[in-house]
Automatic annotation (TrEMBL), chain A:
UniProt superkingdom: Bacteria
Protein name: Transcriptional regulator
Organism from which the protein derives: Abyssalbus ytuae
Organism lineage string: Bacteria, Pseudomonadati, Bacteroidota, Flavobacteriia, Flavobacteriales
InterPro entries named among the record's database cross-references: WH-like_DNA-bd_sf (IPR036388), WH_DNA-bd_dom (IPR027395), WH_DNA-bd_sf (IPR036390)
All residue ranges annotated as the Winged helix DNA-binding domain in the record: 15-94
A Pfam family it matches: HTH_34
Automatic annotation (TrEMBL), chain B:
Transmembrane regions: 23-46, 66-85, 105-123, 129-147, 154-173, 179-197
Protein name: Uncharacterized protein
Keywords, in A-Z order: Membrane, Transmembrane, Transmembrane helix
Domain of life (superkingdom): Bacteria
Length: 97, 203
């Protein structure tokens, strides 16, 4: 079952899919942008971001704008590749049934 | 079934990609209204010029200033209408009007437009008046095409249309007025109508 193999556990959650989707089409996204787009709480978003970071699917870039801390996320080459595989697998799965 | 969950996932992904990268609340109705303002403005300009004792436009007369005022009012009314209607539509969609996608749209629209505006001012200062109408159409078209990457739909074709008219206008500057009416009036109305029926009316 090659199709199932490509389903990536790391993406198997709504919020993680959402994070990846936003990052795929944007150069980067800020924490607050993601929070608003996905309408989730800080803690919830942070833990999903951490999980994706651990897999090295996303980059984290912390900086200061003025005196405010600002965190930007962007997708890594590996993350881009894996996410594409995951979506292809999903699409195949659906069209097979 | 599992596949239903996955289908929902994919729909969600597509939705996210669109919402985060494109400003989707641009109102079609504002396009129609901009076109109508342009036609009214053109009518007033036409009356002003044909009722003046010369019957044609010269550049540093009283009539010229009135025509410029007319032009500025049309532009202002169009911009205000676009902002108001798009804000209303964004609210209905549960979108913020001034987020990163709308900022990107406005910035990318303004780069070619301001470049063109400055260029036109420069050549006007050099007393080269003949190509003004053509240049305005061309740069406006380029601005639309540049902005089209950050919003949806037909705006790209509107831009192409304006550029084509601009080039025709460069070729036959004598018809500048009518090509303006066509470009800023009629094309906007067609574009707005298409947008309105395709995107606004759905919900």
């Amino acid at each position: 079952m090659g199709i199932i193999n490509n389903i990536n556990k790391a993406f198997d959650h709504r919020i993680r899919l959402g994070i990846m989707a936003v990052l795929m089409v944007n150069e980067y996204a800020e924490f607050n942008t993601l929070k608003e787009m996905l309408s989730v709480t800080d803690g919830n978003l942070a833990s999903h971001l951490k999980a994706l970071e651990k897999e090295e699917y996303i980059n984290i870039q912390k900086q200061f704008i003025g005196r405010k801390p600002n965190t930007r996320y962007s997708v890594t080459t590996l993350g881009r590749k894996e996410f594409k595989k995951h979506i292809d697998a999903l699409e195949k799965l659906i069209s097979n049934k | 079934m599992e596949s239903k969950k996955y289908l929902e996932d994919i729909t969600e992904i597509k939705n996210m990609m669109n919402r985060s990268s494109r400003f989707i609340s641009l109102s079609g109705l504002s396009g129609i209204l901009a076109g109508i303002y342009a036609l009214i403005g053109a009518f007033i300009a036409y009356k002003l010029v044909s009722n003046s004792h010369r019957g044609y436009l010269i550049l540093d007369g009283h009539i010229f200033r009135l025509v410029m005022l007319d032009l500025a009012l049309v532009a202002l009314a169009s911009i205000v209408t676009a902002i108001l209607l798009s804000t209303a539509k964004a609210k209905k969609n549960g979108e913020k009007i001034w987020d990163s996608s709308s900022k990107r749209l406005v910035i990318n629209f303004l780069i070619p437009l301001i470049t063109g505006g400055i260029y036109i001012l420069i050549i006007l200062n050099q007393q080269k008046y003949g190509q003004t109408a053509a240049l305005m159409l061309i740069f406006y078209g380029l601005a639309l095409i540049n902005a089209s990457k950050y919003t949806l739909g037909y705006i790209r074709y509107l831009g192409i249309g304006e550029i084509v008219l601009g080039l025709i206008c460069a070729f036959i500057p004598g018809f500048g007025f009518w090509l303006w009416v066509l470009g800023f009036g009629i094309l906007h109305i067609i574009y707005g109508t298409l947008m309105h029926f395709k995107y606004d009316r759905k919900k």
